[in-house]
Task: structure prediction
Amino acid sequence: MMRRVAIELKNVSRQFISPAGKVTLALRDFSLTVNEGDFCVIVGPTGCGKSTTLGMITGLNPPSTGTVEVFGKPVTGIDPDIGFVFQADAVFPWKNVLDNVAVGPIYRGKPAAQAREMAAHWVRRVGLAGFEHHFPHQLSGGMRKRVALAQTFINEPKILLMDEPFSALDVQTRALMQDELLGLWSEKKASVVFVTHDIEEAIALGDRVVVLSKGPGSVKCSYDIGLPRPRDVSTARYTGEFIDLSRKIWSDLKDEVQI
Ligand SMILES: Nc1ncnc2c1ncn2[C@@H]1O[C@H](COP(=O)(O)OP(=O)(O)OP(=O)(O)O)[C@@H](O)[C@H]1O
Result:
């Protein structure tokens, strides 16, 4: 069966003009197609336009030329079917865990009691049972990330955009969160675009890893990741296929950062 195209960027470019009039071309002739239910990971050298790409899919940052479509429609503004998780936690410091997770449904018009019931389910789902009444400053970094995941998944986004969400975590916590993310994702299979600098994270998570060239970014190459699912991140990384992919992507990126 042919799957629908979830996200399509066609021949996109994006330039920024500073107040002093300096022009930066962030992306040039950039094209990317993400099918429905696919987990697409973008890696690339610093400043190559990865975050800019996500901004274009959200509609916050329109392209200078080219087209961006989500489920066949041009992106015109913020779409409630799109969820985001960024590096910085988007939790409200003055709300407890339960109220932080209930924010999405309340914003979408659910009555408070129902929203809190849904939130209680998601708090348990991400392993935070017992912490409902804790405030963000009373949690570890990994626990705050769990709150962020619950906050996002409670809205059942069809599209999920993630910009280095786990890069501030220590290695063990990061691996745990990668497994948690894959577990959550596998239930509904949102179409994901995940940006990271971590090549092993890219291979462990993705159906596809897209490597960008240095800025102005465009697609340098793309790898289909055939590792079986469900994946256990900590064991997948010792397979020959994983190590082989990792070596290839490292060498692609090395070419891009050499001066
Ligand atoms: N609002 C803006 N105004 C001016 N220049 C910008 C703006 N946003 C991004 N840029 C420039 O566009 C280029 C791409 O930035 P972007 O943040 O997309 O890169 P990135 O690949 O996500 O980088 P990193 O890996 O370091 O996070 C950079 O040269 C950046 O300085």
Observations:
- The chain is about 35% helix and 25% strand.
- The chain has two domains: 5-81+158-257, 92-156.
- Residues 5-81+158-257 form a domain with the Rossmann fold fold (CATH 3.40.50.300).
